[in-house]
Amino acid sequence: MTLNAILITGRTINQGATIENKTSSDYQEATAYCELNPKDIGILGISPGSRVLVKTDHGDVVVKLKENKGNPDGIAFIPMGPWANAVVDPDTKGCGMPGFKGIPALIEPTDKKVLLMKELIARYK
């Protein structure tokens, strides 16, 4: 019930529409999720709407699972935002941008809750 995947992040319409109110539930709904295709969700043995723990060499985060039939096998997508930032490569390699694409990740079902943004940020103190 684990999935080895490659994580990518990016902007979405809903993420951009809610970016001015980052403490809102709308922003959390727009950014605190991970998309997988139906085959990869089947490997995990859970349903869309369940929570998953996404772990990379750079951190871990709990997000809600969503289905995206357009995702290739083994590709996970999390919209840019605090939840994605918890697992991306912080090394900018001199260009000023963290590594938002191509991050090896391990994804597994979890009963842990999705942290509110303030709770998530508090982990960095």
Mean pLDDT: 94
Q: What's the main sheet like?
A: 6 strands, mixed
Derived from helix and strand composition plus strand pairing, the structural class reads alpha/beta
- Order of helix and strand elements from N to C terminus: EHHEHEEEHEH
Count of helices? 5
Please state the CA-atom Rg, rounded to the nearest Å.
Answer: 14 Å
Helix content: 10-25%
Strand order of the largest sheet: 2-4-3-6-1-5
Report low-confidence residues grouped into runs of 5 or more: none
End-to-end C-alpha gap: 32 Å
Q: Assign an overall shape.
A: globular
Could you give the count of β-strands? Answer: 6
Q: How big a fraction of the residues is strand?
A: 25-35%
Tags for this model:
5 helices; globular; alpha/beta; 125 residues; 24% helix
Question: What is the compact description of this entry?
Answer:
The chain has 125 residues and is of the alpha/beta class.
Structural notes for this entry:
The chain contains 5 helices and 6 strands, in the order E-H-H-E-H-E-E-E-H-E-H. It is α/β, with parallel strands linked by helices and 125 residues long. A 6-stranded mixed β-sheet has the order 2-4-3-6-1-5. The protein is globular and about 35 Å long. It starts with a strand and ends with a helix.
Layout of helices and strands:
Elements: E1 3-10, H1 13-18, H2 25-31, E2 33-36, H3 38-44, E3 51-56, E4 59-67, E5 75-79, H4 82-85, E6 103-109, H5 117-122
Parallel strand pairs: 1-5, 2-4
Antiparallel strand pairs: 1-6, 3-4, 3-6
